[in-house]
Amino acid sequence: MEKVTIATVARRAGVSRQTVSNVLNTPDVVREETRERVREAIAELGYRVNQAARQMRTGRSRLIAVRIEPANDGINGSVLDRFLHGLTDAAGLAGYRVMLYTAAGDDDEIATYEELLSAYDLDAFVLTSTHHGDPRTSWLAGRDIPFVTFGRPWGAPDTHSWVDVDNASGTTAATERLLATGHRRIGFLGWPAGSGVGDARREGWARALGAAHLLGSSAGVEDGVDTGAAAARGLLAAEPDTTALVCASDSLALGALEAAREMGRDCAVIGFDDTAVARAIGLTSVSQPLAEAAGRCMDLLRELLDGRAPSAPTHVLLPPSLVLRQTA
């Protein structure tokens, strides 16, 4: 079998070898259409960068680390799995490899950083699940270790580059959909106050109702199907006029559907995250552009590692989309 080289890729994509090299090393200087054509050729041909030669040339390991989250109820835990899949794809196209690790909490994760950095020649980290008072970013920044986050620094100064999804706009779109279909009493099932993502998702619901000069009731519970069912039962019993629920997750939405069915209530339900379960049961849900988010994280990380990052941190906020199905 003929060895696949940069020249092979260039011929397949109809570009020069320098253009292929630019796509691999400095993609921002190549037009998006050309980048996609080259990346398609790379995927079709199965081209792999010679990592040993590149490491000798650049002095880098081409290895980045990211935490893998616990499965929890197996529904919304799959969201970050999809992000990790996208990050692995984007890293591979850029000639990097992803190392996964687990951690039970912030302190455990920081201890894991020290272990990994002493055992491996890591180039950088991608952090997920950012939250108020997150100590991980300051630990890495204080040691000049390159990183980007999938999630903004909730309540903290924007001192590092991040990519996030506009959670509030997602629940605004969900609520506006329900308003457009005639609902006037729309409740919200979310998480306890203090969660950056959860608070943003509640804010989007409240914003849409406020714009329509309407009120609605909300409940904040720990994420899960059973907790969602219990919260929905309480809200629907206390608010008999409620005909629709916007939920902060598909797990909560699944519980809400179960509660409404048990109570014999005709209640529209919209979830968030567009998980496989949502697709299987016909749940209308807000979908996050996880593959795009992963690709943008990788782009920002490469700018940092290549010394091409702007003087101020870069912040990327991506819009989600509403996927309409039978429940709303």
UniProtKB/TrEMBL annotation:
Any coiled-coil regions, as ranges: none
HTH lacI-type domain ranges (all copies):
4-58
Q: Could you say which residues form the signal peptide? A: none
Q: Which UniProt keywords apply?
A: DNA-binding, Transcription, Transcription regulation
Keyword Disulfide bond set for record: no
**Do the record's keywords include Transcription regulation?**
yes
Superkingdom to which the source organism belongs: Bacteria
Which InterPro entries does this UniProt record tie to the protein? HTH_LacI, LacI/GalR-like_sensor, Lambda_DNA-bd_dom_sf, Peripla_BP_I
UniProt cross-references to PANTHER family, sorted A to Z = HTH-TYPE TRANSCRIPTIONAL REGULATOR GALS, LACI-RELATED TRANSCRIPTIONAL REPRESSOR
Q: What is the lineage of its organism?
A: Bacteria, Bacillati, Actinomycetota, Actinomycetes, Micromonosporales
SUPFAM superfamilies reported for this sequence: lambda repressor-like DNA-binding domains, Periplasmic binding protein-like I
Protein known as: Alanine racemase
What organism is the protein native to? Paractinoplanes deccanensis
Entry-linked Gene3D superfamilies: 3.40.50.2300, lambda repressor-like DNA-binding domains
